[in-house]
């Protein structure tokens, strides 16, 4: 299986700096979906899904400020 990388804008993250996988941004089909998992992208700038291996990361120059 090829590991996909999904580049995100800071505005794609929720107010806690995360995204859910499977995600429509990853162009996933229903047949290859898995249980929804929360990934904290804002903390380290990227996160990898433990189910499918998709990596979600902020595009270069994007920064997540957090809701503080």
Please provide a written account of the structure.
With 68 residues, the chain is mainly beta. It has one helix and five strands; from the N terminus they run E-E-E-H-E-E. It has one helix at 41-44; strands spanning 5-8, 18-21, 37-40, 46-48, 55-58. The strands form two sheets. It has a three-stranded mixed sheet with strand order 1-5-4. A two-stranded antiparallel ribbon has the order 2-3. It starts with a strand and ends in a 10-residue tail after the last strand. The model has no long low-confidence stretch (mean pLDDT 87).
Topology (elements, then pairings):
Layout: E1 5-8, E2 18-21, E3 37-40, H1 41-44, E4 46-48, E5 55-58
Parallel strand pairs: 1-5
Antiparallel strand pairs: 2-3, 4-5
Tally of DSSP helical segments: 1
Based on CA atoms alone, the radius of gyration comes out at 12 Å
Q: Structural class of the secondary elements?
A: mainly beta
Summarize the helix and strand pattern as letters. Answer: EEEHEE
Residue stretches low in confidence (pLDDT < 50, at least 5 long) are none
Q: Main sheet?
A: 3 strands, mixed
Kindly, what is the distance between the CA atoms of the first and last residues, rounded to a whole number of angstroms?
39 Å
Question: Taking all residues together, what is the mean pLDDT?
Answer: 87
Beta-strand percentage?
A: 25-35%
Largest sheet: spatial strand order: 1-5-4
Backbone shape: globular
Number of strands: 5
The quaternary state of the protein chains shown equals single chain
Helicity range of the residues? under 10%
């Amino acid at each position: 299986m090829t590991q996909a990388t999904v580049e995100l804008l800071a505005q794609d993250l929720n107010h806690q700096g995360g995204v859910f996988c499977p995600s429509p941004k990853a162009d996933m089909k229903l047949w290859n979906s898995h249980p929804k998992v929360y990934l904290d992208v804002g903390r380290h700038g990227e996160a990898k899904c433990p189910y499918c291996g998709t990596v979600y990361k902020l595009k270069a120059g994007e920064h997540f400020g957090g809701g503080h």
